[in-house]
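Supplementary notes (optional reading)

For those who missed the lab, this is the record we used. Protein: Cof-like hydrolase. Length: 289 residues.
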Amino acid sequence: MNKRPIRLVISDIDGTILNDQHQVDYQLKTQLPLLQEKGIPFVLASARSPLGMEPIAQQLGLIDNPLACYNGALVIKGNSQNYDVLMEHGLDKKEVQYLLELVQEKFPAVAINLYSGKDWFAEQIDKWVQEEADITGENPILQSLVSVVEDRASIHKLLLIGEAATIQNLHDYLQNTNFPKTAFYLSKENYLEVTAKQVSKENALQEIAHFYHIPLQQVMAIGDNFNDLPMLKLAGLGVAMGNAPKAVKEQAAAVTHTNNNHGVAQAIEQYVLDQQLSFQNTIEKLTDS
């Protein structure tokens, strides 16, 4: 277990700070001002877009902190209408065009969602796109995806949604197709995320820690799923949610309560606020002696 005091906390959103009703944990809201008082940044890292993350950041009072969007493909600071890009890693456009052709031809039932900057694009509203809109509170811009790829400077992510068996077959197919600059991973059994190969929450953690000039040993990362695992392993303290899959919990340094039982708040209390108090008491004793 990490013995150095935590100076930066990076957290996933869905299944982590949000409960199963997609609501922010009220206990977490009360703790974040305590972190702010101690100068400990709390940064959100998610597969969501800036528009999908901003309302949650506003609820938590984190609008001045960086947001690691699209699993770190785009890291911004500011609001979704006026933000600075701190880091970005766009997809290879030729590979995106090939992927669009391939999916539309061989897997026509799969919904294709494309993300560039703050904007979400789709060609139609089907049940899968509507479900994602309901979860995130966003609505896509309806436009030809081929034209979006041609017009936009950077494409940060694609999200492919369908029936679980279809998405699994698509994932297997793409893993055996020539996409040297593109990575594919399942964030849910029926959600296939597509980003540039160098994109991961692990790299986002490194970049954000560097931004704050904080060593990795003093970073706590919290998450609930397999795409969080590299981040949990890299951080000085990686905490898995109680609702995480067994394999994720087994590889994390610590396990907290579930997302429905104040898991993130409990981790902050135990591993950050209590440790800060203990560290301060030790310093005071050394000073007095």
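If you only remember one thing from this example: The first helix runs from residue 26 to 37.
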